[in-house]
Amino acid sequence: MPAPVSLRRAHVRAPIRTPRKVTGLAGDKLLGQRTLLEQIEYTDELTSSGYYYGLRSLPRKEQDPITYERFYDAVHSAVMGARETSKNVAASPGARELGELLFALLTPEGHAVAVSSGLVGHQGAFRIAIRYMAENGYDRNPQIRPGDIFTACDPATTGTPHPGDVYTFVPLFYKDEFIGWAAGMNHTMEAGGAVPGAWPPWSPNTFTDGYLLPPTKVGEDYEDYTWLYKHFERRTRAPMFNILDQKMRVAGCRMVVDSVTEAIDKFGLDYFKDATREIIEETRRICSDNVKLLTVPGRSRFVAFRTVPYAGVVDGVWPQSAKNWLLHLHSEVQIDTREGQVHVNWDKISPANWHAQGGYKGIIESNLWLNVMDTIGLGLKPNSGMNLAVTYDMPEGGLFNPPNDRHSAGNPWASSVALFNCFGGGLEVSKRARGFVEEAWNSDLCWTGIQGEITLKNGFSFGFCQMDLLGASATPARPYMDGEPLGTAWWNPSSDTGSVEEWEYVLPGIYYLSKNVLPSYCGHGRFRGGLGMQLAFAVSDEVQEAIIGKIGASTGNYFTGQASIPGGGYPAPTSTLIVYRQTNILELLRQGEYPGGMAELAEWIESGKLTYTDRELHKEEVGALFVKPGDIYIVAGNATGGWGDPLHRAVDAVALDVKEGFIPASVADRVYGVPVDETGSATESLEAAAEARRAEIRRDREASSVSFEEFWRTEREVVRSGELPQFLTDAYAELNGFSPSFREEFARFWQLDAEEEAQS
Fold first, then answer.
1. Is 175 inside any structural domain?
2. Beta strands in 387-479 (DSSP E)
3. Whether residue 619 is found in the same domain as residue 698
C-alpha cells in the first residue's frame, strides 16, 4: 500500500492579482435593452408558441446545411474537449476514473445548446440556476462580467439534484457582448452532510444535507476567491478533492469559452446567435417526430413504492421524522401523436415530508432528460430541446415540489429512479404497442454505492464516496435479447468503474478482496436482465476506525416494484450490504493467501477458513456503520430486470447460463423449470425433462393462484376493516389528504361508501 495522503487540508496559495480591467456591460441591462430576467421571460413567451424561441423555420440549416453541421461540430467539440481534458487532470476519481462530470454550452437563458458526454441529464437543470441568478438581480449585484465564476450546490435554488452535484458557470462574452454561458459539473466525493459521503440518506431536512451553496460569485478573472477553499476545508471532509474539482470545472469552462470564441471568429456572431437557437428547436422537432413515429396515442399508468425506514433512527434528533414512510410513486403518461407531445401527470405522488428521499425540480428535469434520451431521443443533437418535447404536472407540495426550501434533497435518486422507471415504462409500452419491439426495453434497475469516513492510526481522517459501483450498470433485458453485465450506466452512458488500484490509493486502509459479476443477481425472464456485480472489502490495520454507509436506488428496496416492467419478467433484485465482524482476513493476507474472487471467498466462509464473530445483512439504505480492522463488508448492486415469463426461456439458453456460471443449477430448476446439472449440457432428454418440470410449475402456479375477483373481495375487506400495517395506513391517509384524484379513485376502486372513505 502507498503511504496515505492527507485529505484533511489543502493549502492553497492565494493568487497574486494585478488590477482588473473591467470589460463588458455593467448594470441591469446585461443584454442590451433587457435584463437577464427580461430576456428569460421574453424567450419563454416566444417558446409558448410551441416552437423554441418562436422559430417556425430553421433558415440557417435550410440555406446551408453543411455549414450548419460544421458549426454544431465546432461547439460540440468545444464541450467534449473540455470534458476529456478536465477528466484527465481531475483529482477526484469519480471524475477521472468514472467520468462523472459534464460540460455544456448554454444560451444566456441557461438552455443547453451542446452537451458533452458524461452525466448528461444535468443539462436539464442548468437553467434553474441561471433563472435564480436572474430573478435575484445578479446583473446588477454582483454583476456578471468576463472571467467571473459562479458555483452552486443547493438543490432548492440551483437545480442540482443533491448536494454532491456541484455546478460551475462562467459567462461567455464576445467583444464585450454577453452571449451565453460555459457550464461544468461533477459528482463530488464528499458533501459535508450529517453522515460522510456524497449522500446523507438519513437527513430529515436541508440543514443536515451538507455544504449548500446557492448560485454564488466565487471568483473573477478565472481565479477562485480564497474564501471558497476555506469553506470546503471547514464544511467538507475531503477538501482536497473539492478544491481541485472546483479548479477542474473552472478550467473546463475556460476551455469552452476559448473554443467557442474561436468558433464565433470563424462563423460570425450573428450566425452563432441564430444557429444556437435553431439547434435547440431542431432537437425539439426531432423528439416530437419520434413521438409520432415510435408511439401510439393513449394513456398508461405505472406505480412503484419506496420505504423510508426512519423510525428508531432520528427519533431524538428530529421528532417529525421519527416514523416509517411508504412512498407512492405514480406516473400517468399521456401521448398525443398528432401533436408529437408527451405529458406526464404526477398528481398521485406522495407529498413532501421530512426525509431525504424527496427533492426539488432539478431532479425531475435531470431524470426527464435521461428518459427522453433513452426512449425517444433517436437521431438528434442532445440539448434542451429534448425537455421541450415533454410537459409535466408536479403538484405543489408533492415529493419533488416541496412547500418550502427546508426539505432535504439528500438522497432524491432513491425515489426518483423508481418514479422515472414508471415514466420510462409508459413510453416503452407505447413503443412496443406500435410494433417497435427492438426499441423497447425493461426500465427496472437498481444501483448502489458505498460512502463513509476513514480515520487512520496516524491521525488522518477523510470522507469519501466509493463510486466504482456507480460506474457500470447491467443493461436491461429486451423482448428479444438478454441484458449485458456492466454494459453501461443509465445516468452516464460513457462511464467506467475505474481502476481498483486507483481506488485503493485514494482510500488508504481499505483493501479490495474481489470485484465480480454476481451469479443469478438479475431479474429473470424469457430474456434475463444483465447481471449486477458484487464487491468485497477488508478494513486494514492501518485504520483506527471507519464509518461506512450504503446508498442506492431501485424501483423498491425491501422489495422491487414490477410495475415498470412491460414484459412480465422478474424485477431487478435490490442492493444489499453484508458485514462480517472481526474476521481473520488480515492474518490470511499476511500469510500470502488472497481470495481469487467472490466464489473462493464464499468457500473460505463455508469451510471455516475465514472466521468471524457476527454477520449483518442490510437491505435498505444504511446511514452509518462503524467498521474496524479485520471487518469485511460486501456490497451488491447494479442489476436489471428481466423480460417475459422465465418458463418461456429456451432450454439451451438456460443450460448455457448454468455452464457459464451466470445462474446456479438450483435457479435453473426452480425459476426456469430446467433440471440441469452443473455441466449444463443441453440434450434432447433435457428438453423432455424441462417440459415436464415446467408443466409441474404451471400446475403449482394455478393451484396457488386466485381469480382477480376473489383477490379483490378479500383485500376489500382488509381495507374496510382498517387491518393494514401502520406504514400502509399512513401512506393511504397522506395520499388521500394530499391528492383529491387519488382519494376519488381509491374510493371508487374499493367501492367504499362516504363513511368508509372518510375512515380510510
1. yes
2. 390-393, 446-456, 461-466
3. no
Place of cell 456578471: 144
Backbone angles phi and psi of 130, in degrees to 5: -65, -40
CA-based diameter of the chain, in Å? 87
Residue type, 174: Y
Same domain, 622 and 539: yes
The predicted pLDDT at position 559 comes to 43
What is the distance between the alpha carbons of residues 501 and 710, in angstroms, rounded to a whole number? 58
* Residues 493 and 373 occupy one common structural domain: yes
The rounded distance, in Å, linking the Cα atoms of 760 and 755 is 9
Same domain, 241 and 200: yes
pLDDT block averages, 10 residues each, the chain of length 760: 38 38 53 92 96 97 98 98 90 87 97 95 94 96 97 94 96 96 95 92 92 97 97 95 96 98 98 98 96 92 87 86 91 93 94 94 89 85 91 93 95 87 83 81 79 94 88 86 85 82 89 92 92 94 93 56 60 90 97 91 95 93 91 92 92 94 94 88 81 96 93 92 86 91 93 68
- Amino acid letter, 416: S
Q: Using CA atoms, how far apart are residues 530 and 517, in angstroms rounded to an integer? A: 10
344 & 445 share domain: yes
- Which structural domain range is residue 448 located in? 292-637
- The three cell numbers of residue 573 are 433484485
Asked if residue 540 and residue 419 are part of one domain, the reply reads yes
Residue 172 domain-assigned? yes
Looking at the structure of the chain, the number of domains it has is 4
CA-atom Rg of the chain in angstroms: 27
Show the cell assigned to 464: 469519501
C-alpha cell at 402: 416541496
Rounded Cα distance between 354 and 323, Å, is: 10
Question: Is residue 547 in a domain?
Answer: yes
Bridge partners, residue 34, by sequence:
31
The answer to whether residues 655 and 508 belong to one domain is no
The domain boundary, picked from 664, 680, 704, lies at 704
> Crossing angle of helices 226-235/239-267, nearest 10°?
140
Neighbours of 208 (CB within 10 A): 18
Are 535 and 482 members of one domain? yes
List CB contacts of 750: < 8 A, sequence separation 6 or more. Answer: 716, 719, 720, 760
Q: Specify the pairing of strand 576-581 against strand 177-187.
A: unpaired
Per the listing, cell 437553467 goes with 127
- Residue 30, in any domain of the structure: no
- Strand pairing class (223-224; 149-152): unpaired
Last residue of a domain, one of 226, 260, 283: 283
C-alpha 577/C-alpha 446 separation (Å) is: 14
